[in-house]
Request: fold
Amino acid sequence: PPWSSDGWESVFIGNFGNILSDCADLVDVYIVDPYVIFLLKKRTESPITFFGVPLLKSSLEITLLQDLLSQDTDLFTLQSGTRLHYTERQCQKIELVSAHLSEVLPEVSDLTRVRLAKLVAHQSSILRDFIPLFLDNRVEEIFLDRPDSTVYFDHSRYGRCHCGFTIRSKEVPRLITLLRSESNLHLDRRN
Reply:
């Protein structure tokens, strides 16, 4: 099978196990840190669907992630007086969460702490659903035709694939504002 390798990496699926209800649907699975990427196909004529699931190795890590995500956002609020680019904000948030984890649970390994911090930072962003796509070197182009429609992309190995998420109409203004501020371009129907 395409997911076999010399060295196995253990992952804990937890609540995300429902996407694997029938392993016959599994086309491929691989790691794009800090995510496990699942490519599934329900029927012969249906497109391959992409799911990026947090790379967690135990139920303790799932609990830690859930606790970090449910904590007061003031704990991880950036205190910069200047406007930072998206990547800088994400890096600072990763550092804040990592430092917090280091204080609260010093026995957590550096790799686990940074992985959990990345996941928390990603989840706080309007781009949270896109981040596994952005990090995956096999994803070539990403397409969104209109709000409330399926996001799809071109995969270097499997061609046109669909995502397991859509962008709701109410999220579009935030997404456009972020893209405008980061690109310094006026976005409209022409571009």
Summary: The chain is about 30% helix and 20% strand. Helices lie at 59-70, 86-104, 110-123, 131-135, 172-183. The longest strand covers residues 159-166.
